[in-house]
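Encode chain A's predicted structure.
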Amino acid sequence: MSKKVDLRRLFLGLLFSFCVTVQWGCPSGAQLRGPRTTPKGKVQINVAPNALGIAVSANTGTSSATGFTGPFPVVDAALSYGITDFMDLQIQLNTFAYVTAGMGFQLLRSKFFDLSTSFDIGGTFFGLPGVSFGYLTFPLKILGGINLHERFSINVSAGYQGFFFFANAASTGASLLAHTITTSVGFDIRITDSFTLRPQGSVLIPLVNAGFVEGLIWNAGLGLVFTLGGAGPRTSQRRFDDGVDR
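Encoded structure for chain A:
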């Protein structure tokens, strides 16, 4: 009997972790970074209210069905610091349950085009009497920007994001490794030297479908980016021309 109870708790733990993940935005895929790393010695704060939804389809060969869930309100926030002119450190908090930390690296910076990459690791953990569960996530992304004006850029990103789910109940444990790809499109609209609007939309798609079930998680939001410690990127025509943030 106790074994059945443990298995039941383990299943409920995994189920709850999954529900928290897909319905409260933990793997929302929202792109908080821009294609330019945070300027050296400066701090950027990005607060992004989002809407998140889930689309799922199932096909048994003889019948099919499609379902949509959402949108759900999600809040993402990120704090980044420029270590050098081409490298920064960022901490991201998602819906107050999911935290990641990572670094961004500038690969190319020019008047018309920017390119960078980022790597993060983080996750969340829950503990209840008799059961614990959570997951780790590790996204790796490439970010590009097309600069149409010193105050306006088009941003795109693509990458891989892995999720390692785990749960334990007494002496019983279970885990699941999920692989996804993520892509996003957005804009940087620089209102002032220290404030930027960053609307964006993104999708997160499993690389391997669960049997006959396919799905994706979509996200749309507006980032409010504040630069502290001086002017943000590309705040004068001279900075735009030489492609270097000062």
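The chain is about 10% helix and 65% strand.
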